[in-house]
Amino acid sequence: MIQVKLFAAAKQFAGTETATLNLEGPVALHELRRMLIKEHPALDAILPSARIAVNTEYVADETLVNESDEIAVIPPVSGG
Amino acid sequence: MPKNCHTKNTNNARSQMIHLTNTPIDTNQILTDVQADEAGAVVLFLGTTRVVTDGKVTKSLDYECYPEMAEKKLTQLEDTARSRWPIIHAIIHHRLGHLEIGEASVAVAVSCAHRRDAFEAGQWLIDTIKEEVPIWKKENWADGSTEWVHPGAETPCEKPE
Fold this sequence. Notes:
Chain A is of the alpha+beta class. Chain A has 2 helices and 7 strands. Helices cover 30% and strands 34% of the residues of chain B.
């Protein structure tokens, strides 16, 4: 099981702060994006413009992740 | 360390200079803490709550963050700024939670020997915070609707009342 943290509009649209995907790693982030939308179709409105952070760093979509990674959907930020 | 102790700022003290807080930002304390004998310039930026945006009236704001990554990113940004400008002290405080009109959302203060560095470093820090740090603002509009602010997202993230 891969857990993905959701924030802001992503959390609102999915209705949960954690998405759980029935996957074992390693999986590339672009595939993870597809699985997230399959599991939570409402995420389609925000996921394309969101970055994904792995272990608190922004990474490219080719990055492979597995169950032990901390993965988070980062919608366009609006702090400051 | 007592305030009147004229020693160099150490890396240990620096970690207290980045602060995510649910309580109002104390700008007087920040201005006191950022000053230094070697500094000829102090620049303070405050992010304030704009009441009208694109014709819509803000009643209040809520801020959410990804805490571990936000603190890490703020520290990274300070490190980068220090590598580019001769910063003496840098203080970055960001509010989280519920903010009423008139409350500051963020304070960025830098002190340098000379003002050009202080202005440039301060501007770079707030500009980059706004692009990189995982903190999000939710507008609570006067008409009762709420909206996460996500610049560049195609679909408005608006929730009607």
